[in-house]
Design a protein that fits this description.
Length: about 475
């Protein structure tokens, strides 16, 4: 395959592969003339049927099937009749391998992507792209470019994380970066993104930044630490409020006048992190201990008339919430066979606490005014539990009824089994559902305490002059 020609056609068929995914390679490694592996995982149902699993006779899932539009045919590859799919495959079907119906052993998208890339649900195995890069591109500056999917290295070749850049109408822009790796007992991943938009309607601009990270470290063969942290910040997301039918007909992009007058908006800020210790005690028993802390803050400006805000029972037009969270848990799990079936026993204890400050203020035409509500809420919960779970038997009589058979056929025909697989293989530590005839579940009632104190004030808003 000629590299530049592939990039040109792939760029035109945006549904197939983002053009910016490969541009760094085109510049940094323009002299490379060897083999290139481009591995694309289309998970879920819509991605598949919009690309190389067209199901053109299935009117229940695709509009083009209902319209009678035939699928594109390029060699032995059938593609959905949309975008530039056919043009791409007409040019490259001889160098393209399409595999539909891959069983990823799970209905979790992240785990399914990992199973697709490595062939295993467990961590620590190399991505097929990493193996290819190690074989054909070892020593090159960027042998493995990754724009999504599973990108945690097994230590053969480090991935080069390519930023995900998106731009659109009304000032829409999004930047994202995700990467990970594994070496000497460590493995982890991190992602960060930023989004902003001016908005289709007046007074509807918003922006958001967030990050997620997960880092694991194996202390030895039986003990492992995992650090998880994530944050979310969305400041001053404007709210244009709803329109009447008449207003929509006049101007669908306008905001309610009171939204402008009171500058209606909302700000969110969340941050939390936790540490998990997993220990394998023996072939049947495991122990997990975890702790976490976090904070959540929310402030919202509402379009409440000033006269209503001044009432003694009113909290005003600005709602502010600050919450601090903390918790810990210990859990013992045992897995064994009982009466010819698998049995999982779990026992443990959990403690969660929350300290919350709720305040209300006058919304003085978009500016936080006098205090109207001042309330503190403290809650803590302690719970001890024990449960016994296993796998329920299939009810053969119920499964053989005509309705059950028709439902199973429909479930498969519309593609639900691509995500919700009939057989799910979980990790040894995962709990399973047990039938009432075999299982015993006992849970103690949690012990909780709640404390609250409130202070209400009534005041007159200050005046402002707008010029």
């Amino acid at each position: 395959m000629e590299r530049r020609e592939f990039l040109r056609v792939a760029s035109a068929a945006g549904v197939v592969i983002p053009w910016w995914t490969l541009l760094p390679a085109a510049h940094a490694q323009a002299v490379y003339s060897g083999r290139i592996l481009i591995n694309i995982h289309a998970d879920g149902g819509i991605d598949q049927s919009s690309w190389t699993d067209p199901r053109e006779k299935d009117t229940a899932i695709n509009n083009y099937a209902a319209a009678g539009t035939p699928a594109g045919v390029s060699g032995n590859i059938r593609s959905a009749p949309m975008g530039n799919n056919k043009a791409f495959f007409d040019a490259h079907f001889r160098q393209t391998l399409v595999i539909n119906g891959v069983h990823s052993e799970t209905n979790g998208h992240d785990e399914g992507t990992r199973a697709h890339a490595t062939g295993r649900l467990d961590m620590g195995y190399p991505n097929i792209a990493e193996l290819f890069a190690f074989t054909y591109g070892k020593g090159m500056p960027m042998p493995w470019l990754n724009n999504g999917g599973f990108r945690i290295s097994a230590g053969l070749v480090p991935p080069t994380a390519v930023p995900d850049l998106e731009f659109g109408s009304y000032g829409f822009q999004r930047y994202a970066l995700k990467g990970g790796g594994a070496t000497d007992g460590f493995n982890g991943m991190a992602s960060a993104s930023y989004f902003s938009v001016d908005g289709y309607r007046e007074h509807s601009a918003a922006r958001k930044a967030q990050f997620n990270t997960k880092i694991g470290y194996s202390l030895n063969e039986t003990n492992r630490l995992t650090l998880v942290a994530n944050g979310f910040n969305q400041p001053n997301a404007q709210d244009p409020l709803g329109l009447t039918q008449q207003q929509v007909q006049q101007n669908p992009r306008q905001a309610q006048p009171v939204a402008i007058a009171f500058d209606t908006r909302r700000s969110l800020d969340n941050l939390q992190g936790g540490l998990i210790w997993d220990s394998t005690l023996d072939a049947n028993d495991s122990l997990r201990v975890l702790g976490y802390v976090g904070s959540r803050n929310n402030e919202q400006f509402l379009a409440v008339p000033l006269a209503s805000q001044l009432a003694a029972t009113s909290s005003g037009g600005v709602s502010k919430l600050d919450r601090q969270l903390t918790g810990a848990a210990v859990r013992w799990t045992r897995q064994q066979d009982l009466f010819g079936g698998p049995l999982t026993l779990t026992a443990g204890a959990e403690y969660d606490a929350s300290t919350e400050a709720r305040q209300g203020f006058i919304n003085d035409l978009g500016v936080r005014g006098a205090l109207k509500r001042d309330e503190d809420n403290d809650v803590d919960v302690f719970a001890r539990f024990m449960r016994s779970t296993g796998v329920p038997p299939r009810e053969a009589g119920l499964a053989a009824t005509p309705d059950a058979r028709a439902g199973e056929a429909l479930f498969r025909r519309v593609g639900c089994v691509n995500c919700h697989v009939p057989t799910i293989v979980t990790s040894p530590a995962a709990s399973r559902t047990r039938s009432a005839s075999r299982g015993l579940t006992t849970t103690t009632a949690p012990v909780s305490r709640a404390r609250s104190k409130m202070k209400w004030t009534s005041s007159t808003p200050s005046s402002r002059v707008h010029s």
